[in-house]
Amino acid sequence: MSRLMHPHLFSLSKPQVPVVSLLRSLCTTHGRSNTRVTEIVRNHVGLLPNRNSLYGFRTFCTSEDLSIKKCVPCNAKDLRPMSKESANGLIQKVEGWDLVDEGGILKLNRSWKVKSFTKGLDFFKLVADLAEAEDNINNMVNAGHHPDLHLVGWNNVKIEIWTHAVGGLTENDFILAAKINGLDLHELLRKKVSARGPARTT
Ligand SMILES: C[C@H](O)[C@H](O)[C@H]1CNC2=NC(N)=NC(=O)C2=N1
């Protein structure tokens, strides 16, 4: 199993082994489903045990880079919120984002200080374009995956991401966070104030 799980075998950019035959060998050993892989998939993507979903394997087997993945429709019937353990694993992949628990609902949060109120709105437009572009993997349904956008005190931006349809986090949320991290924001954000030494008193 470990040989099959070698990362380069799962690289979709340079497949060494046709993915379908790889998945088949992972999923059935002498006709029995491979519960270990199903267990990993269920934990990792929040799918119910009986769903032998390609989505799950696609999510599990494709690149570690969340920013090149596609969201699945939030109204997928067996999508459910991921566990806190899974969320704690994925949060490592989205630098700068915090995992928060708001009354039992896990969410992703990140804040920025923008140069001006209108730069904040420009930021929102960039994020809106990302959110609207999210389709499911075969582009049949434009599901879209949308963040909650806050602009307060004229230049303080906070973005919250969670999957409303399931009342918690799914991999969609981490994909959107990773894509937001990929935006070029240097024209919009206030320069970080360098850490000054202790203020001198005269
Ligand atoms: C049909 C479509 O998938 C739903 O309306 C989408 C739209 N965008 C969404 N965005 C978020 N964050 N959560 C959702 O549940 C959601 N649902």
Give an overview in words:
Belongs to the pterin-4-alpha-carbinolamine dehydratase family. This is 4a-hydroxytetrahydrobiopterin dehydratase. With 202 residues, the chain is α+β, with helices and mostly antiparallel strands. It has a domain at 80-182: Transcriptional coactivator/pterin dehydratase (Gyrase A, domain 2, 2-Layer Sandwich). The protein is built from 7 helices and 6 strands. The strands form 2 sheets. The protein has a 4-stranded antiparallel β-sheet, with helices on one face. It has a two-stranded antiparallel ribbon with strand order 1-2. The chain starts with 6 loop residues before the first helix and ends in a 21-residue tail after the last helix. Bound molecules: the ligand C[C@H](O)[C@H](O)[C@H]1CNC2=NC(N)=NC(=O)C2=N1. Residues 73-75, 143-146, 163-165 line the site of the ligand C[C@H](O)[C@H](O)[C@H]1CNC2=NC(N)=NC(=O)C2=N1.
Shape: globular
Biggest beta sheet summary: 4 strands, antiparallel
Overall average pLDDT: 74
Task: Return the structural class.
Answer: alpha+beta
Order of helices and strands: HHEEHHHEEHEEH
Please report the number of helical segments. Answer: 7
Which ions, cofactors or small ligands are bound in this entry?
Answer: the ligand C[C@H](O)[C@H](O)[C@H]1CNC2=NC(N)=NC(=O)C2=N1
Return residue spans where pLDDT drops below 50 for at least 5 consecutive residues.
Answer: 1-63
- In CATH terms, what is the architecture of one domain? 2-Layer Sandwich
N/C terminus separation: 69 Å
The number of E-state strands comes to: 6
The proportion of residues forming helix, as a percent range, comes to 25-40%
GO molecular function, one term: 4-alpha-hydroxytetrahydrobiopterin dehydratase activity
Family: Belongs to the pterin-4-alpha-carbinolamine dehydratase family.
Enzyme class: lyase
Pfam families: Pterin_4a
